[in-house]
Amino acid sequence: MVKFIDLMAGIGGMRLAFEQAGADCVFSSEIDEKNQKTYELNFGERPYGDICDINEYDIPDHDILITGLPAQAHSSIKNGKMIVKYGTLLYEITRILQAKQPRALLVETTGSLSHSHDKHINEMINVFKGLGYRTFHQLINAKGLVPQERNRVYIVGLKDAYNFEFPHIPEQGPALKTILEDYVDEKYTLSDKQWLHIQQRHRHPKLHARLADLNSITRPLLSDYIQNPNILIMSQNGRNPRRLTPRECARLQGFPDEFVIPVSDVVAYRQFGASSTVPVVRLIANEILRALKKDERLESCVKFTSEEQLLNYTKDIIGKSFKEIDKQNILQGNSKDKGRLGKVVETGFYGYQLNNRCEADFNELGIELKVSGFNKLRDGSWSAKERISLSMINYKKIIHEEFEFSRLISKNRKLLIIWYEYVKDAPYEDFIIRDFQLYDMSIDEPIIRNDFYSIKQMVVDGLAHELSEGQSVILGAATKGQKGQTAVQPNSPVPAPTRAFSLKNSFFRGVLRDHVQGIQREKRSIDFVTPEGFVWDKLKPYKGMSQMNILNQFIKRDKAKGIPKNVSKMVSDRVVGKDSELSIKHEVFSKSNFLIKNIPIREDNTPLEKATFSTLQISDFTSPWEDSEWKRFFEEVTFIYIAYIGLKDGQELKNGDRILDRIFKVTFSADEVEDFGKTYNMIKKAIDEKNIEFLPTASSDINGEYKLVIAPKGNAGGVYERFLEDKRETCFMLNKDFLYKKFNEAVTLY
Questions:
Q1: d(C-alpha 661, C-alpha 643), whole Å
Q2: What is the arithmetic mean of pLDDT over 87-95?
Q3: Residue 283 — very low, low, confident or very high, per pLDDT cuts 50/70/90?
Q4: DSSP codes of every residue in 287-330
Q5: Residue 191 lies in a domain
Q6: Do 311 and 232 belong to one domain?
Q7: Is the pTM of the predicted complex or chain greater than 0.85?
Q8: 87 pLDDT more than 50
Q9: Within-domain flag for 404
């Protein structure tokens, strides 16, 4: 399916038209909050706000950009060249076109192709031509499709040599009476005062001309209709004339009756008066889609008839830099958008036209192309740098999908992954492609299927806003789009962050490691036991026993030697398995961030000890939070806490006597991970300014402001000063109140 973005979207008239034509909207922007409300209720997602605040590289890839632009001055002449003025709407559109390079664009604007309007429209056309678009423009009157005179100029831009023709619009269209409601509330009838005012302003014959002819068409609907009803009023037998209702205005613009109008009449008149005429845009959309389909790929594209042919061809990419294969200069500029690397491979090496179709890149073989980076570690081994993003999660559609027939599987069953070596601070064009592999999702299908239905169930339960990557094993639900972007979920009024299916970074580290080591991965059996289920199956026979009683089942210890401090760890190592053994006993532990922790609790789940993580060092804080390893860790990690009762009936149970009770599965939501980012940024500030006062420590956070704090690993004094000297004596620790909350909402196995 062809993808488009909807900018300065209003209430979504252009989007509705393109969706009716069969295209898929992947991003929208609208600054007006009331317009956003109407848009969200009808399309299930709230548009981003001011287009000026949007990072162009955060916008998803798309085939078509659609927008409305006023016919006004957008540029100036400097040294004989036209310069698009910074801050104008055309400037904002231009920077997005330059960054994302969609195959087509559609702009609707007011004007008449004459006088001053002609100058501003030509200005837009010249800008689009300068960006490599072949342009077509036409003044279209909507009267052949809806019962109103409504002239708008439409500008179409197409990359490459696509042919395009504007659609034929009939001269004669429907009459006004076809859009009228059967019953109209009395409030839409003009008051005596309003009717008198109109009569005084417009004497015969002008007054008669103001009364709409139900068998003909009417004057254009304008956004100030509520202030000026005289432009469109209808006579009523024996009564004052009336204005159109909001629903009739919607019909006048070609909106279906299913389109929800959640705002007041005053706002609705403004919204529909300013909107696009849906049937006109739909016909133009059909022609744009038809033009794009004429040449989905470049003439130079390589066509493959077998996997073997594709893989043999791909061998030639090894050792090449992105600069060598960037034939369309996609990497020009200083953008950090890694998505451009995939476009370079797609166009420069395989010769495919840029596309955002729903089917796989090598659709005839059922193979999707992915380009991903790896870090080379000190020992020479490779570690996958990022998750593999798959397809967007449509909250409204997933509740009706089955795994085997889902868009996820239809597009991503097999992935051809091109691996490049990531070098910090190096330009993208200098990155070298080192290897490639074909990953078959069916190998891990039982786990991925389980993850899919786990994510689906969260959406069905109205909990899409609580999704996190850590809740699943291999297939994650990763946040996607600009920070703060949300979508409507079907069974809850709470907006949910937009998310995409992804294969976790921790999982793909294992996949890449096996590939480099030449390990042939075997297809899994249909039976799949979750890691937490695996752990509890091992522990369950010992529920209700003390730590030492369990340990004595495996080793006999001399009581005179006392209780070892790490008795809980000794128990879990013997019952469940040492960390190094878990990957052998249960493969998922080697492919995912599942970590086992031991903790004493009260009977009400209150933790009695702090929950700490691995030792911190200054090099952990060199990257911004968004790109940090710690952010990725907290997004993907799943903790399995083995809980021992340490306080019973008011009596403290000593270490060794604590009773095995249950396990908790703990993951972190997107909001919680962002809260952890506050801690990270404060530590980074303390390092940059060499000032420990900025450190959010367990002792300084008396008000519980931070869910995550920095804490000593031991009891030595001066540990925070030594942290700034890069002495590894500190660690992250979860706030106890926060951990108590997590235990009470966690998946618990008894």
A1: 6
A2: 83
A3: very high
A4: HHHHHHHTTSS-TT----SSHHHHHHHHGGGTT-BHHHH-TT-T
A5: yes
A6: no
A7: no
A8: no
A9: yes
Which pLDDT does position 460 carry in this prediction? 94
The two tokens of residue 181 are: 């409601």
Q: How many residues does the chain have?
A: 750
User: Beta strand 638-648 with 594-602: parallel, antiparallel or unpaired?
Assistant: parallel
Q: Note whether 196 and 253 are same-domain residues.
A: yes
Domain holding 745, by residue range, is 531-749
**466 and 553 in one domain?**
no
Q: How many domains does the chain have?
A: 4
Closest listed residue to residue 278, CA positions, set 309, 245, 254: 254
Is residue 157 domain-shared with residue 218, that is, in the same domain?
A: no
Provide the residue type at 693 as one letter: E
Q: Over the range 416-454, which residues count as b (16 or more CB within 10 Å of their CB) and which as e? A: bbbbbbbeeeeebbebbbbbbbebebeebbbbbbbbbeb
One domain for residues 464 and 558: no
Say if residues 577 and 589 touch (Cβ distance below 8 Å).
no
Task: Please compute, for residue 373, the number of CA atoms within 13 A of its CA located in the half-sphere on the CB side.
Answer: 20
Residues 86 and 199 in one domain: no
Structure tokens of 420? 């490049």
Token pair of 488 as six digits? 């409507």
Residues ≥6 apart with Cβ < 8 Å to 10: 30, 32, 35, 39, 68, 271, 274, 275, 276
Strand locations in 145-243, DSSP E? 151-158, 233-236, 239-243
Residue 604's pLDDT is 86
Cα–Cα distance between 490 and 36 in angstroms, integer? 18
CATH of the domain at 431: 3.40.600.10
Does any domain span residue 523? no
pLDDT at 89 over 70: yes
Crossing angle of the two packed helices 89-100 and 115-130, in degrees rounded to 10:
20
Residue 543, pLDDT score: 92
Same domain, 452 and 580: no
Query: Within this chain, do residues 593 and 476 fall inside the same structural domain, yes or no?
Result: no
- What phi and psi values does residue 730 have, to the nearest 5 degrees? -125, 165
The answer to whether 188 and 115 have CB atoms below 8 angstroms apart is no
Are the beta carbons of 733 and 707 closer than 8 angstroms? no
300 domain-assigned:
no
